[in-house]
Amino acid sequence: MGIKLRQAEKRDWDLILDLRNASYKFFYKQNEPISHNEHYKYMENQIKNNNFHQWIITHNNEDAGYVRILDSDVSIMVDKEYQNKGIASIALFLLEKEAKTLGIKKLVALVAPENKSSQKIFQKNNYILKLNLFEKDL
């Protein structure tokens, strides 16, 4: 399978926005689709962060998804058309190689309890569940 990572660039921000808005229900902080302006403002801020690294997942030279590391937190988003084909696991492996070259020693994945497919990906790739996070809005 021709899965590769390429450095994400500003020209990819609309793709990333589409992926975010298609997947937001599984995100910890984003609980509704975000606007183009909000997304671009977020991206402008993040690219200044030395602990933010991002790549586009390609499958046979077609854009298939997005991975990023923010601090040590890993995020993977795969376009619906490319899901359930093992792409996320391969992308995670490639991201780990990139993380090692960046000197990152530990990765963490914050996965929503209802996101069973992401849980399986991380478990299958030897990530260990360390704690449950309980919270309450007051």
TrEMBL record:
Gene3D superfamilies assigned to the protein according to its UniProt record, in alphabetical order: 3.40.630.30
Coiled-coil stretches noted in the UniProt entry, renumbered to this chain: none
Signal peptide as annotated in the record: none
Keywords per UniProt: Transferase
InterPro entries for the chain: Acyl_CoA_acyltransferase, GNAT_dom
Cited CDD domains: NAT_SF
Protein name: Acetyltransferase (GNAT) family protein
Domain of life: Archaea
Positions of the N-acetyltransferase domain: 3-138
Organism annotation: Candidatus Nitrosomarinus catalinensis
GO molecular function: acyltransferase activity, transferring groups other than amino-acyl groups
PANTHER family from the UniProt entry: GNAT-FAMILY ACETYLTRANSFERASE, SPERMIDINE N(1)-ACETYLTRANSFERASE
